[in-house]
Amino acid sequence: MDGLLNFYRPWDHYKKGFGSAAGEYWLGLESLFHLTLRKRFEIRVDMEDFSGNKVFARYSSFSIDPESHGYKLHVSGFTNGGAGDGLTFHNGQKFSTFDKDQDSSSRVNCARKYLGAFWYNSCDNANPNGVYRWGADDTINRVGVEWYNWKGRNYSLKTISMKIRPLDKLAQSVEQQRGSGLRERASFLVLTRTLLLSLGELNETQHLLTAQRLYTLLEAPLLELAKDDDAQEAERPAAAPASFSEALTLYLNRCEQQPGVTTPRSKLVSVLLLLLAPVLTCCLRLVLPLDCNDIHNHDKSRPSGVYTIYPIGATSAVQVYCDMNSAGGGWTVFQRRMDGSVNFYRPWDHYKKGFGSAAGEYWLGLESLYHLTLSRNIELMVDMEDFSGNKAFARYSSFSIDPESQGYKLHVSGFTDGGAGDSMSHHNGQKFSTFDKDQDSYSGNCARLHLGAFWYNACHYTNPNGVYRWGADNTIFAVGVDWLRWKGWNYSLKTISMKIRPVQ
Ligand SMILES: [Ca+2]
Asked: For residues 232 and 472, which has the higher predicted lDDT (pLDDT)?
């Protein structure tokens, strides 16, 4: 739905599930198997393109076999909702991931070739777990979030969701209740998260955690509150509210009925603020550090971790990971890959503003980076690790980028080898490129060709924002998280982090 989550993942992730129910996610094959085990299920696939057109495909029968049978898919009874039949082609196929090839192609590993995970045949009519390519793109054939029968091989959908429900009526109503509970919880999480985002200070993960904590905190008292109010009114039967949303509605109605009481919405906000106070207080700082080096200089005992810095002044609070250990510490990390959780194939405005979570994978943002390197001498360190536990680094004594008006042009020099070799000097003097803003030195579009975003030349010696490919893979040339001088073009690193600090 938004291209925030990476879906190119190994078998155990697809087995257990990943992502967040409020956003992009995969439920997990094991849960799916158990859900469809005892009842007859139908499946509906809803999708939307980037022009706002919506269609669906529906199948009256859906189930999957247990893991011992490769979670084999059984789907039939197609009804066309405008999307065409993308799934019947996959009927009878086992589930395949890049590290567990159970597809029907003897020539290729479909998951590696089409950068997804699915009940691949040889290979697909639908690739819902492919790369979120933000619309039409035929640079690399068929790797997007594709539904062939509607938009062809090289159109990556804006949204797609696959949903199931039991055919049997009684079971259906139970399932609907359960579903509405989940929806209610999800919409509460979204609401609270939006509120928290407007308050600034916390990152995405913390917002979600806080929202979840608030839900837990508020659910019982509100149910209790609404129940008490009901009991006091003699003319009404004292029916206890059945759900959280019912309790919340009752509570807000009471507030509205009493004259002179603050409006329900502001009341809800004040309740949330009250509960948030400790969280916010601990985040407020007396000083506004520009970068991790400021924090490090203020107190050399502070450990590595997530801190708030202010690269563009008091209103520019942003969370970063500070490396307080490497080579004397005080490093501000502006790019980090470590577990393949975040999707890095994103448009210009995402790379300008930054994305991800400072506690995990993230990109700080070109605008912050520009301000951090402005009128100071800055050095760059790139730390990396392969899947065998080997570590290496490359260090550059000078690093800066130009403003957006100059395409955030890169200036990097003064290489010192920490075993990784020099893959950055090749990019010196290049502007930053994303798939939707080609400023590279190649006739084609390097970002689309290498599924990343970087100071591409023609095109790269390193692709730190490429596809997290979990190690060696030469199926598609140089699209991984590569560092040419250490592991070549077809080895996607386990971790890489790019960090800066003022020259000491
Ligand atoms: Ca170009």
From this structure: 472
Runs of H (alpha helix) within 99-152: 110-113, 148-151
CB 394 within 8 A of CB 417: yes
CA dist., res. 474 & res. 108, Å (int)? 12
Alpha carbon distance 23, 205 (integer Å): 12
How many residues can be counted in the chain? 504
Centroid of ligand 1 to alpha carbon of 156 (angstroms): 21
CA of 62 to the centre of ligand 1 (A): 45
Could you tell me the two tokens for 284?
């407020």
Residue 331, H or E segment? strand 331-337
Q: Distance, CA 100 to ligand 1 centroid (Å)?
A: 36
- Report CA(258)–ligand 1 centroid distance (Å): 64
User: DSSP string spanning 37-88?
Assistant: TSS-EEEEEEEE-TTS-EEEEEEEEEEE--GGGTT-EEEEEEEEEBS---SG
Q: In this predicted model, what pLDDT tens digit does every residue of 162-214 receive, in sequence order?
A: 999 998 754 445 445 555 555 556 555 566 555 555 555 445 555 555 556 65
Q: What is the pLDDT of residues 410-419, one digit of tens each?
A: 999 999 999 9
Q: How does residue 43 score in pLDDT terms, banded at 50, 70 and 90?
A: very high
> Do the bridges between strand 135-136 and strand 159-166 make them parallel or antiparallel, or are there none, so unpaired?
unpaired
CA of 439 to the centre of ligand 1 (A): 6
d(CA 70, CA 75): 15
**What single letter denotes the amino acid at residue 6?**
N
Taking only Cα atoms into account, the Rg of the chain, rounded to an integer number of angstroms, comes to 25
**Spatial CA neighbour of 141 closest among 117, 116, 159, 114:** 114
Q: What is the pLDDT of residue 278?
A: 44
Q: At 383, give phi and psi (nearest 5°).
A: -100, 140
Q: How confident is the model at residue 375 (pLDDT cuts 50, 70, 90)?
A: confident
pLDDT of residue 281: 40
Q: Give percent above pLDDT 70 in the chain.
A: 76
Please state, in angstroms and rounded to a whole number, the distance separating the CA atoms of residues 142 and 160: 16
Report how far ligand 1's centroid is from the alpha carbon of 357 (Å). Answer: 30
What's the token pair of residue 403?
């403003």
Q: If you measure from the C-alpha of residue 435 to the centroid of ligand 1, how many angstroms do you get, rounded to a whole number? A: 10
